[in-house]
Design a protein that fits this description.
The complex is a heterodimer of chains A (142) and B (430). Chain A contains five helices and eight strands. With 142 residues, chain A is an alpha+beta fold. In chain A, the strands form two sheets. Chain A has a four-stranded antiparallel β-sheet with strand order 2-3-1-4, covered by helices on one side. A four-stranded antiparallel β-sheet of chain A has the order 6-7-5-8. With 430 residues, chain B is of the alpha/beta class. Chain B is 30% helix and 25% strand. Chain B has eleven helices and 20 strands. In chain B, the strands form four sheets. In chain B, strands 3, 4, 5, 6, 7, 8, 9, 10, 11, 12, 13 and 14 form a twelve-stranded mixed β-sheet that branches. Chain B has a four-stranded mixed β-sheet with strand order 19-18-17-20. In chain B, helix 5 packs across helix 6, helix 8 packs parallel to helix 9 and helix 10 runs antiparallel to helix 11. Chain B is globular. At the A-B interface, strand 1, strand 3 and strand 4 of A face helix 11 and strand 19 of B.
Chain lengths: 142, 430
């Protein structure tokens, strides 16, 4: 399963600069970034090519960062592409806690990334339904 | 024991000794401009003091009296007898000055040695003194006492964490003297240096100079893997060594052959029964340069009347709950910073640093509690953080009855503390 780097950040100017600055120093490539925000603070979520190293670097800089297991699947970039996957999750009673997506190749491939409670179970139901589950390596190589 | 005859003295003999010393102190005090005037105005007859209870006739002394008699209105000996002065750290308001004769310095060192032995210290210990040297009594006070006991003293003073750690490693420090806030900060620094605090040779910490909670003590003990001892003192009564915990670490023995101890209701000035909480009032029974009678410490505590199993007959006081003047009144509710600290330090996700900020919004008091999120406890989940805030809010409301706003901060965003930590910021304008 792939990993996402989650970073705790106060809601103030300069926070994304600080985080991305740390990653730049070691040439870490960002695939996707999203921020959930609660007003005073937020959690910056990053998909990067070397998640373990990135989390370690951020922690060394005194930033509260952690690795989270996530599920990433390849979906078709067309109307209904995500619907198919969502239906399977509904039928299996999987609750999506947080999600984001990005397009790999327009009109062709997209990646849907989400946080769930039981990663293994979710991966199983989706792969049984024919979805290609992306591993750490695949996610960063596409 | 350092001095078994005095430390395990019977209560009856102790009281007789106290009365004898009290009379000598009163005689010396009457020669000072300050007490001379007080005694005349209150018609105090020193010869009429036949029981310790007579002490109630004496008016209290306060910090303000020390300021008014600045610089030497309370001094009882010629200037040529004085060998040292110290000044209070000025926790609240302007600083005050205390003078010592050579005998005062020796007696003080003796009390410190007695206190250290009560914690199990011996001449084989290596004592690293991380309290500020200089006008503050915490540094030099323990320094002389530890030397008197025969320890090797490392006078490292406060701050410069990297060097502190180096000294501990190179010289095999076994006892540290440190403020609780700096102990927490230094534990983080030790870990940052890649050293496990448990691998150091430090076995004991003497904590003092700031009020702190039992939860903070536990946290310090856990992070360092040592025994933390509570100590009490204030510059007006010499400095550290007024009261100290013994190996049992349940309350601090007040050295009653040196300090006549009372606990009063801070509002009425009446004495409260032993065991009840109130303001600690101390009379110094053993000081030449500057007699001090019924000094109101502003520190809130209670006397533990039960005898201690260590065999010392000197009564214990409970850890200082707070100061009568650091109590905050928030929306009409009395709140002590120590109550908040107790709650915060019991929550593992919370780091070692916090701030209490009081604001007035739309004529209502608001309390903001700023805490640093402990890196290791961060799980990357927004809902967990919201639950944590809720948990903290509820735990605080259960103790202080008001509902503070909790702000989670990144680690390292609050200024680290190297001396006395400033935790409360009252920004309310009247």
């Amino acid at each position: 399963m792939p990993h996402q780097v989650s970073v705790f950040a106060e809601n103030r100017p300069g926070k994304i600069e600080r985080i991305t600055g740390v990653l730049l120093k070691k040439n870490i490539d960002i695939r996707a970034i999203t921020i959930s925000d609660s007003g005073d603070y937020g959690i910056v979520k990053l998909l990067v090519d070397r998640p373990q190293e990135a989390a370690g670097l951020l922690k060394e800089e005194g930033i509260a960062a952690t690795l989270r297991d996530i599920v990433a699947i390849r979906v078709k970039d067309k109307p209904g592409g995500l619907y198919e996957a969502a239906s399977i999750l509904t039928r299996s009673g999987v609750n999506v806690e947080d999600a984001y997506g990005f397009i790999v190749e327009r009109k062709k491939d997209a990646v849907f990334v989400f946080q769930v409670e039981d990663v293994r179970k979710t991966e199983r139901v989706l792969s049984d339904a024919g979805f290609s589950i992306l591993t750490d390596g695949e996610l960063y190589l596409i | 024991m350092w001095n078994k005859e005095l430390e395990a003295i019977s209560r009856k003999d102790l009281e007789a000794l106290q009365l004898k010393k009290l009379k000598a102190t009163l005689a010396a005090a009457s020669k000072t401009p300050y007490y001379g005037k007080i005694f005349r105005e209150n018609k105090i007859d020193v010869d009429a003091f036949t029981t310790l209870d007579h002490v109630k006739e004496l008016p209290f002394a306060t910090k303000n009296d020390l300021r008014l008699s600045y610089p030497d209105g309370m001094v009882a000996v010629p200037r040529s007898e004085i060998v040292r002065m110290h000044a209070s750290s000025g926790t609240t308001g302007k600083s005050t000055v205390i003078f010592y004769t050579m005998n005062d310095i020796t007696a003080w060192a003796d009390l410190i040695a007695r206190s250290m032995v009560a914690t199990g210290a011996t001449r084989d210990d290596v004592f690293q003194n991380m309290m500020g040297y200089g006008l503050f009594t915490g540094g030099l006070g323990l320094h002389y006492g530890a030397e008197r006991l025969g320890c090797m003293v490392i006078p490292s003073s406060s701050g410069n964490s990297i060097r502190q750690i180096q000294l501990m490693q190179d010289f095999g420090t076994t006892i540290i003297h440190i403020t609780p806030s700096y102990a927490l900060h230094l534990a983080d620094e030790v870990k940052e240096q890649g050293v496990n605090p448990n691998d150091l040779t430090v076995k004991k910490a003497y904590l003092g100079a700031e009020p702190y909670s039992e939860a903070t003590r536990n946290k310090i003990q856990e992070q360092w893997g040592l025994e933390a001892y509570n100590s009490y003192g204030l510059s007006e009564l010499n400095g550290p060594g007024v009261a100290f915990e013994c190996v049992h670490r349940c309350g601090m023995h007040v050295w009653e052959d040196y300090y006549l101890t009372e606990v009063i209701n801070p509002e009425t000035g009446e004495r409260v029964p032993d065991g009840e909480e109130g303001e600690l009032v101390l009379t110094h029974l053993n000081r030449e340069a500057m007699p001090m009678l019924r000094y109101r410490t502003r520190d809130l505590t209670r006397i533990i009347p039960e005898p201690c199993t260590c065999g010392r007959t000197h009564r214990r006081i409970e850890r200082i709950k707070g100061r009568t003047d650091d109590m905050m009144i928030v929306s009409g509710v009395n709140v002590f910073p120590s109550q908040i600290e107790t709650v915060l330090m019991n929550i593992p996700e919370v780091g070692n640093n916090y701030q209490i900020v009081l604001e007035r919004e739309d004529n209502l008091d608001r309390m903001h509690i700023k805490v640093e999120l402990y890196s290791k406890m961060f799980q990357g989940d927004m809902r967990e953080l919201e639950r944590l805030k809720k948990r903290m809010g509820e735990a605080l409301r259960a103790i202080i009855t008001i509902n503070p706003k909790i702000e989670l901060l990144e680690p390292g965003s609050l200024p680290p503390s190297q001396g006395k930590a400033k935790r409360v910021f009252d920004n309310r304008s009247l």
